[in-house]
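Hi C.,

You asked whether I'd gotten around to modeling the 354-residue construct. I have! Everything is below, sequence then structure, no commentary in between.
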Amino acid sequence: MTLRLFISIIFGTLISAVTLYLAFRNVPFPVLVDYLMSINFIWLLPAVTLVIFGFALRALRWQYIMGAAHRIVFWQAFHPLMIGFAINCVLPGRVGELARPIILRRQADIPLTTGLATVVVERVFDLSMLLLLFVWVSTGVQIDPSIEIRFGQSVLNRDTLAVIFNGMVVASAILVTALILLGVHRTRKVLNDLVLLLPRFLFFLGSSGKQRVEKRLCRPAVGIIENVGAGIQLIRRPKRLVVCLALSASIWALAAISYYLFSLGCPDIRLTLAEISAMMVIICFVIALPSVPGFWGLWEAGGVFALMLFGVAEKDAAGFTLANHAVQMFPVILVGLISAWINGINIMQVSYQK
C-alpha cells in the first residue's frame, strides 16, 4: 500500500466518522442501538437481492453504452463497475469512477479516454433520471421550510435542495451539450483541425520545435478527442438510447423497492412506496454534495430530513437511515472485492493509478 493511499484511507475514515457524528449528535446512542436491534432482518435478503440486481442492470446499461463503439461481454462491464463502486464506498474523491475505465482497459483493451467517456454518459442518464424524480417529489411533497438538519457548518433544508437542483440542471445542460458536440463527426473534425493549427501560432519556435509540439501535444490530443467521440457514439443510436433510458428507469425503480422492502422490517416506518421513493431521491440529492467515502453522514442527514417530512420521529428516522445505508453499501463492497479477486485486480494499486 502506498503512503498516499494509506493517508487517503485514514483521512477518509476520520472524515466519515466526524460527519456521521454530526448527523447523529442529537440522537442518544443507546436509543439508536435499541432501534437497530429491534429491526426484523428477515427483510434484509430481498432488499439486498434487489441491490445486486440493480447493479447488474447498471452493468448491462454500461455494456449497451460501450457497445455503440466497442463490443464487450456482460462480465467485462460488471466486474469493473462493481470494483469501481466498491472503491467509491471506501475512498474519498469518487476515484472509483476513474478506476472503472482503467480496469476496462486492462480487461478489454479499450482506450482509457473512451471508457471514461462512457462513464460520463452513464452519469448523465442517472442525473437526468434524478432530476425528473426530484420534479415529481417537489410537486407531490410539501417540504416544510421550518424543518432543517444541521451537521457541522452545513444546513439541510428546502433552500439547500433548491440550490442543489439548480446546480444539477446547469451541470446536466453542460454535459449534454458537450457530449452532443463531441459525438458529431463534423464538430470533432473542426476541433481536431484547430488543435493541429496550434503550432503555427507558436511563431517563436523553430520548425523543429513546432514539429515536437505537434508530435507530443497536438497528435495525442486529437487521439484523445477521437477516443472520447468513440465512447459517446450512443447518441447516434436511437434504439440504444431507448434501451438505456428503460434500463435507467428500472435501476431507480429497483433501488426504491429495495428501500421499501427493508422499511417493512423497521419499527415505526410505515410509509408508502411513493414516500420511500421521495426519501431516496432526497438522499441522492444530498450526497451529490462534496462527500466523504460511502457518503456516511450526508446520507444519514438526507434520510432523517426526508423522513421527518413524513412525520417520522428523529430517532426512528436515524435508525432506519443508518441501517438502510449499510444494506445499500456493504453488499456492493463485498461483491466488488469478489470481482477484484476473480479478475486478479489489486484494488489498492488501481485506486490511484495514473
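If it helps when you're writing up: The two ends are 15 Å apart (CA to CA).

Thanks,
B.
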